[in-house]
């Protein structure tokens, strides 16, 4: 065999080993959702078993799954929409600014997203309590939008800055207003950036645990918080956790797989 063939086999073998290393824990958790309770911790572990839906039946008996999913959708959807409404125009304004501090301001917005979650939680908790929004999913939407819109501003600044100004100047010459050139020329040209920003914000909001845990009531908690219910004082009900994990991960994984190519563009674009 040639050196190239051996190198290719080695690369593929390494990729398979790494995939197994990272995916086996998730596959084990997913398989527990279909195992009878007596087989989850059987020694030696049973690789073959008769699938059952008793864990899912337990989940639907103990949890209002559809209410959990609707809360997750409301929080994620509201956060994404508000983040885009604030972040996209802000990114455009920074990209078209003539100030020499525009790049520094863009990095400042990125730094906002890096603020530790607990540091933002305490003052925001007190603020929501004082205005009467504590306990509602609106409070989670607002804090997620505050952080995610800063991230969208940073990303969209990069996309708009790479767009030639001549396109918008031509639109202005043809009679477009400033807003018209933004809506009809600049925004369609950076559609991939908007989709990438949407996906990142959706992941941040859907998987968020800390803010919904402290800012919502029992009837407005998303499914990410419900996963904590599998942890008891004496043990962890792995079957329940595995079944709940299906509802928590499958929707977001399907969306990411569907629009996967935009992640690569969003991660490699960078600020220039």
From TrEMBL:
Localization per Swiss-Prot or TrEMBL: Cell membrane
- Domain of life here? Bacteria
User: Cross-referenced Gene3D superfamilies, in alphabetical order?
Assistant: MetI-like (1.10.3720.10)
Matching Pfam families: BPD_transp_1
Q: How does it sit in the membrane?
A: Multi-pass membrane protein
Domain ABC transmembrane type-1 span(s) in chain numbering:
69-259
UniProt keyword terms in alphabetical order: Cell membrane, Membrane, Transmembrane, Transmembrane helix, Transport
Q: Which InterPro entries match?
A: BP-dep_ABC_trans_perm (IPR050901), MetI-like (IPR000515), MetI-like_sf (IPR035906)
Q: Does Membrane count among this protein's keywords? A: yes
Signal peptide, first to last residue: none
Where does the sequence pass through the membrane? Answer: 12-30, 73-94, 101-128, 134-157, 185-206, 236-259
Q: Which family does it belong to?
A: Belongs to the binding-protein-dependent transport system permease family.
Protein name per its UniProtKB record: Carbohydrate ABC transporter permease
Source species, please? Rhizobium mesosinicum
């Amino acid at each position: 065999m040639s050196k190239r063939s051996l190198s290719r086999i080695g690369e593929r073998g390494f990729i398979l080993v790494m995939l197994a290393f990272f995916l086996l824990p998730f596959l084990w958790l997913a398989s527990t959702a279909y195992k009878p309770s007596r087989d989850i911790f059987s020694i030696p572990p049973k690789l073959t078993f008769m699938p059952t839906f008793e864990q899912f039946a337990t989940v639907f008996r103990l949890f209002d799954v559809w209410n959990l999913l609707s809360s997750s959708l409301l929080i994620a959807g509201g956060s994404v929409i508000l983040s885009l409404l604030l972040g996209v125009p802000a990114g455009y304004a920074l990209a078209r600014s003539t100030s020499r501090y525009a790049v520094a301001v863009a990095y400042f917005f990125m730094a906002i997203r890096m603020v530790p979650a607990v540091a933002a939680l305490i003052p925001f908790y007190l603020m929501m309590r004082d205005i009467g929004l504590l306990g509602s999913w609106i409070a989670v939407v607002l804090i997620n939008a505050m952080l995610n819109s800063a991230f969208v501003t940073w990303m969209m600044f990069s996309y708009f800055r790479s767009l030639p100004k001549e396109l918008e100047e031509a639109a202005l010459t043809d009679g477009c207003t400033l807003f018209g050139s933004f809506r009809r020329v600049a925004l369609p040209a950076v559609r991939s950036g908007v989709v990438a920003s949407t996906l990142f914000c959706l992941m941040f909001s859907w998987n968020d645990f800390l803010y919904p845990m402290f800012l919502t009531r029992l009837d407005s908690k998303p499914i990410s918080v419900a996963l904590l219910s599998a942890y008891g004082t004496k043990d962890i009900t792995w079957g329940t956790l595995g079944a709940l994990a299906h509802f928590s991960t499958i929707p977001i994984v399907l969306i990411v797989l569907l629009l996967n190519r935009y992640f690569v563009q969003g991660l490699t674009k960078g600020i220039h």
